[in-house]
Amino acid sequence: MDNKEIASIFNQIAELLEIKQDNPFKIRAYQRAARNLESLSVDLTDVYRSGGLKALQEIPGIGHDLSLKIEEYLKTGKIASQKALAREFPKGILELINIPGMGPKTAQLLYKKLGIDSLNKLKMAAQAGKLQHLPGMGEKKEANILRGIGFKEASHGRFLLDDATVHAAMIVEELEKLKEAKKILPCGSLRRGQETVGDLDILVISDKPKPIMDKFVSLKLVKSVLAHGETKSAIVMHNGMQADLRVVPAKSFGAAAHYFTGSKGHNIHIRQLAQKKGWKVSEYGIFDAKGRQIGGQTEEEMFSKFGLQYIPPELREMRGEFTAAAAGKIPRLIELGDIRGDLHMHTTATDGENSLEEMAKAAKHLAYEYILITDHTQSTRVAHGLDAGKSSANLHKIKLAAKNISGIRLLAGAEIDILPDGSLDLPGEIIKQLDLAVLAVHSNFKMPREQMTARIIKAMQRLPGSILAHPTGRLLGEREAYAVDLNAVIKAAAKYRCILEVNAHPKRLDLTDFYCRAAKAAGVKIAISTDAHATDQLGLMKYGVITARRGWLEKQDVVNTWPLAKLQRVCGF
Ligand code: DGT
Ligand code: CA
Ligand code: CA
């Protein structure tokens, strides 16, 4: 728990320093430390108790300064410098820098010149056209900010999958400490792996609900308590996310897990099946006409009692899962453990934070068999893309490193920009040296749909067998997908033997579940890739896998579950 709290304080310090336009190295150091603490598998309290400051400093990214700050938090429950820093700015300003189109510099400018310190003030000023006259602003930027506000409002109250996952884990970790809690299961849209989550629905099995309820409403992360009942409670956490808690006895576990997992439509269908048999289904079980419980202790029974095969949570969306289950045709969905490699990642050669060697080492920890290094090409200037000469030198570097690093196979790739006319941002003679190429659109997002579709198809036609990365360019909560005819893209991918990527980054998650299924139907293969820009982001793979599961994909549909030899044979390198 302390790990997450300290990570969140470090992140906030980084944001405040960004507004101040402080030293970028210092800002990065806080961000990196926060990320490392989030993924740390041991408790900071234990680390500190075992070896004091020295032990803290052995954590990657934690130097002398930061170890002192951690010590301060562990001893006093706060970090004074963060409080002091926060006092320099009004509260609302942090909310502003996260609006698409804003950023720390702009937030600072608008605060200084116009006193803007809340979303509402920002919206009024932008609507009144007051922003465009400020230095470095202009009409276009003002319009962008207004669009960003609209986006924020539209995604109102929904959270990214990783954010929801981390917060659910924090609650589970605390409740697990109670001996009265026999089983804890986060349900709802989170368990179904939906790309965004409205609120958390946590189910606990116990015969003694009271201590569980009391602990839940008094957790550190609670901002306010919405309900505090005997078996039901609800809280809002500091980040604005709501969590509902339900406690049921063991004999109701299956029925409750099924009910709270949803989806609502799926639940209604099960109830109708029960009605036809003269039974009743509730979150407490399956009951016959006389009110006797005849099932619902396990989740399997919620299906087997109706002659259905078990339906995994990710498929419970009324997309044909009942027909498939009745026919015994529920697919054997891909699992995280099936993944043998990652085919999209960046290094310090472009905008990554870690070296080739560091990425390889981290991938080895995940027991991967291979990774494809895919740094950017020159057109992607914001990402320090490499020109032809530098790309070529980078390829040599990768191939040399591949010889020296044992235990994992490094593959030489590149994330090649698809230029507006559909041509590729790397000369043919360099493309020839790649093991595998990843293609992506990074510019001119506002093209008309026909043009964008033609642009992408042309690129695939130029380079058959390549991987098309993040096929819609969307950033959840930040940027709309570009207009593109994905059915036509899928058709072309089949024709040119191209692989479509499910980008595992929680802001992307495209291809989406729906189009994964369409791709499979068209015989198109999928790569699930993290697009990692740092070693710890390799762990985002799970979000891509759950999206693929929602798309009914099986192991064989996903190329990075294949052994290296098969990948080489099929992709021809
Ligand atoms: P969310 O939170 O908006 O991302 O989506 P869910 O699916 O987590 O929805 P939520 O939190 O409102 O409810 C959790 C589950 O409880 C939902 O998936 C199914 C079940 N549920 C909620 N309301 C109803 C209802 O009116 N009828 C039935 N049959 N089930 C419901
Ligand atoms: Ca929910
Ligand atoms: Ca709920």
Automatic annotation (TrEMBL):
A GO BP annotation: DNA repair
Primary location group: cytoplasm
UniProt xrefs under SUPFAM superfamilies: DNA polymerase beta, N-terminal domain-like, Nucleotidyltransferase, PHP domain-like, RuvA domain 2-like
UniProt-listed Pfam families: DNA_pol_B_palm (PF14792), DNA_pol_B_thumb (PF14791), HHH_5 (PF14520), HHH_8 (PF14716), PHP (PF02811)
InterPro entries assigned: DNA-dir_DNA_pol_X (IPR002054), DNA_pol_B_palm_palm (IPR028207), DNA_pol_lamdba_lyase_dom_sf (IPR027421), DNA_Pol_thumb_sf (IPR037160), DNA_pol_X_beta-like (IPR002008), HHH_MUS81 (IPR010996), Hlx-hairpin-Hlx_DNA-bd_motif (IPR003583), NT_sf (IPR043519)
Localisation: Cytoplasm
CDD domains: NT_POLXc, PHP_PolX
Reaction catalysed by this enzyme: DNA(n) + a 2'-deoxyribonucleoside 5'-triphosphate = DNA(n+1) + diphosphate; a 5'-end 2'-deoxyribose-2'-deoxyribonucleotide-DNA = (2E,4S)-4-hydroxypenten-2-al-5-phosphate + a 5'-end 5'-phospho-2'-deoxyribonucleoside-DNA + H(+); 2'-deoxyribonucleotide-(2'-deoxyribose 5'-phosphate)-2'-deoxyribonucleotide-DNA = a 3'-end 2'-deoxyribonucleotide-(2,3-dehydro-2,3-deoxyribose 5'-phosphate)-DNA + a 5'-end 5'-phospho-2'-deoxyribonucleoside-DNA + H(+)
Claim: Ribonucleoprotein is one of the keywords in the record: no
Documented EC number(s): 2.7.7.7, 4.2.99.18
CC cofactor: Mg(2+)
Transmembrane segments: none
Function: Repair polymerase that plays a key role in base-excision repair. During this process, the damaged base is excised by specific DNA glycosylases, the DNA backbone is nicked at the abasic site by an apurinic/apyrimidic (AP) endonuclease, and POLB removes 5'-deoxyribose-phosphate from the preincised AP site acting as a 5'-deoxyribose-phosphate lyase (5'-dRP lyase); through its DNA polymerase activity, it adds one nucleotide to the 3' end of the arising single-nucleotide gap.
Entry protein name: DNA polymerase beta
Organism, as annotated: candidate division WOR-1 bacterium RIFOXYB2_FULL_48_7
Lineage of the species this protein comes from: Bacteria, Bacillati, Saganbacteria
